[in-house]
Amino acid sequence: MFKFGPLLAEMYVMWVVGVKLHGLRNIMNEEIKQGKFGTLDMLHHFTSGLKSLFSTMAYDGIEIVRVNCGAAGYSVWSLLPEIWSSYSPVPIYEGDNTVMA
User: CA 5 to CA 15: how far, in whole Å?
Assistant: First the structure.
């Protein structure tokens, strides 16, 4: 639990931030109908930085789970190698995450 506890906490933080961003998106949509774009600009900056942070956190979390499962983490039966290989490019799609952050 010691290694997985922080991952659960990170997941909860990402979920809470996602709920808040969803609310901001709804506000933004209403403002756009009125011809105001201030929230759009703010939301773009927030989501760019959060993508950088959250994609790295998720990638690191997948690696922690995979390594801590021992040999089972490398087995095709666990699906962890497939999850890891399909998710590994996500943190670098738009370049190095330090630039995005």
Answer: 15
- Which of 10, 63, 82, 94 is catalytic? The answer is 94
pLDDT score at 15: 97
Does CATH number 3.40.190.10 belong to domain 4-100? no
| Token pair of 47 as six digits | 């989501």
Count of CA atoms in the C-beta half-sphere (13 A) of 30: 5
Angle at 54 between CA 71 and CA 95, to 5 degrees: 95
Question: Which regions in the chain score pLDDT beneath 70?
Answer: 1, 97, 99-101
Catalytic (active site) residue 31: no
